[in-house]
Every structure is written in structure tokens, then in C-alpha cells.
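Progress note, project year one: complex with guanosine-5'-diphosphate.
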Amino acid sequence: MLRAALIGLGSSGKTTLFQLMTSAKESARAAHGKGEAFIGISKVPDPRLDRLTAMYNPRKRVPATVEFSDLAVPAGTSGAQALVDVVAYKNADALVHVLRAFQDPAVPHPSGSIDPARDAQSMEDELILADLGVAERRLERLEKDLKKSRSAELERERDVVTVCRAALEEGRPLRALDLKGDDLKQLRGFQFLSAKPLLIVINLDEAQLADGAEGATEIDRAAGAAGLTPFLSRAATAAVAVCAKIELEIAQLDAADAAAFLSDLGLKESGLDRVIRASYELLGYISFFTVGDDECRAWSIPRHTPAQLAAGEIHSDIARGFIRAEVVGYDSLIARGSMAACRDRGEVRLEGKDYIVQDGDIINFRFAT
Ligand SMILES: Nc1nc2c(ncn2[C@@H]2O[C@H](COP(=O)(O)OP(=O)(O)O)[C@@H](O)[C@H]2O)c(=O)[nH]1
Ligand SMILES: [Mg+2]
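Model obtained:
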């Protein structure tokens, strides 16, 4: 399960977005550690799965999902210090920082004025400070242990954490460090907040959104207007612009009215869908599909996953007994209209366990039981 955690100042729109994205009835309160967080599941919108479902008319349609958490603190501020002890946040694969750009005198801003760039930087500073505390405590512990007994493993860990501490002391988030392989794995183990990929959600005014804040250029424009451009060029950072208030209005409409409303605004899809999809993409995940009369389903795997490992996503037995993957590209299947027609044209490939699964592959795994 992919996990994303919402952070941001009070009244930036986190809970509004959370409830809309996850449909609040599915959310459950999870009480772990000092803080409490609401957990909810979002379905990743994917027009490809819609097309496949229309083609197969299966009993079940199962989309990819992302889990979101929203800190349930009275003040509504999900600042870094409030996050460090919350399990749902430590375990998150990505942070989603909701930044207030909307003007509304009825909703007071905790800092008194609207300044998204200032808020983005102060959250960054908080994340870095929280991580610095974690790194220093870890290093103290490691030095003590190393005095008792030397071990290559502990020395290696000390080296990685020392690199992290140096970056943090310079005010650099750990997501900007270009760590690889085992170092990266080790870094993940520490659950550093500033190491997590960051999605910036700019919560705009209705008026700003009506200008058409969709697509990369408009997001850049919105980000530029908010003074956020320097943040967007950073490693493992992405941005989306939404207007939570408009999303609230859309959510009250039926599907046809919602589509008409969106197109009036010059938008192709809701902001919620953009946030969910951007979270999924930021994490570096792709989808492959399994299709049939029983079920059409999207499966989430990290980019560059070999076929046998991808099979394990469905069931460990399929990975263990892996023989071949029958693979057809999404575009071929849509163009030919059926798996049989793809087969006739030789467009169904037989791939081995090391084949790197591509986004949109439709796969039937052959395996021995
Ligand atoms: N005008 C306006 N108000 C908003 C928008 N997004 C959220 N709000 C309002 O701001 C207040 C705080 O929102 P909430 O989602 O609870 O913020 P949180 O503290 O970050 O969880 C609520 O009254 C929302 O209705 C927006 O885009 N425009
Ligand atoms: Mg809230």
C-alpha cells in the first residue's frame, strides 16, 4: 500500500481535501503513538482501467489505491514537530504539503497573511530540524555501540547518518541527497521526514482556478505567482494546483453536472483526481493490468520491476511458480479490441522473469502450482 501524509498549517485546507479524496465514511481513526491520524483510502483515477472495464464488463473493477493520512490535532497544524511521533507519518512514503494561497477573510491564517512561499520554507525548516534531532540521537547511540564492539555494519550506518547530518546542518532536505542502493535503503529505515518525496498542493482561490490552473504550464504559473518556483526544481518534489472550495461544490453534484461544471471552468478532471494521481506518480509507481470477465484490475509496482517480482504482487505462489508472462501493450489491446485478435497478429509477447514490466502492460502470468 502506498502511503501519503498530509502536512501544512492550520486552515490550509488539509481536512477538506482529505475528506473529499477519501470519502470520509471509509476513513478510520488510527490511534498510534502520541498523535492521532485519520486514515483514508483513495482510488487512483485511471482512464485505461475504465476502457478495459468497458471492454470486459467484469464483475469487479479494482483500481490502484493510495492511502492518505490527516493528522487529527485540535489546532489543525500539522507541523513537523507534531509529526515525528505519529506512526502513520513516519511510515508514509510521501508527504503532501497543502499550502494556502486562497484569500478569505472568514478563514484566519495562523501567521496573519497569505504567503505560500514563506509557509513552504518554514515547513521545510521544521522537517529539517526534526530530522536533525533524529540524526543526532542516532549518532550518539551508534558511537556508544561502536565503542563496545566494532562492526562494519554499524560503521557504515554511522557514515550514512553523518552524511545526512551534514546536509541537514546546511539546511538541505534529505530528499535532495542523491543516495543509492544500500545507503538509500538504510536512509528509509530511519523514517526521516525530509527524505520523503514531497507533493506541494497549492490551494488556490476560486478566481485563480477559473483562469484554468490545469496542466504543467498553469501549475508553473500558479506556483510562480505564489513564489514557489525555487521549490519545484528540487529533487523528489512535484506540485499540483487545486481549489478545495470548488472541489467541495463539485462533490455535491452528480457525475453529469460535475463534468459540465468542470468543462465550464476549462478543466478536464477534478483537482482531487490530480492530487491523487500526482501522489502516485511522485512515488515512482506504475500500473500493470490483469483483465478478464471476473475482474479488471490495476496493480501498483515501482518503475523497473521485473516480471517475477510483479507477479508476487498478485500472489506469492504466482511468483514462486513463475513460468512466463503473456504481455500485451494497452494500446494494442485497445486497437485490436480483444486478446484473441492481438494473439492472431502476434502482438502477445511471452516474456521471462527478468522482463521489466512497463506502465500499462496487460499481463497474464503462467505459473506452475
Ligand atoms: N475560501 C476558501 N476556503 C477554503 C478553501 N479550502 C478550505 N477552506 C476553508 O478553510 C477552513 C479550514 O479548512 P480545513 O480543511 O479544515 O483546513 P486544515 O486545518 O488544513 O485541515 C474551512 O472553513 C474550509 O472550508 C478554499 O479553497 N477557499
Ligand atoms: Mg484539519
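The longest helix spans residues 116-148.
The longest strand covers residues 36-43.
No further modelling is planned for this target in the current period.
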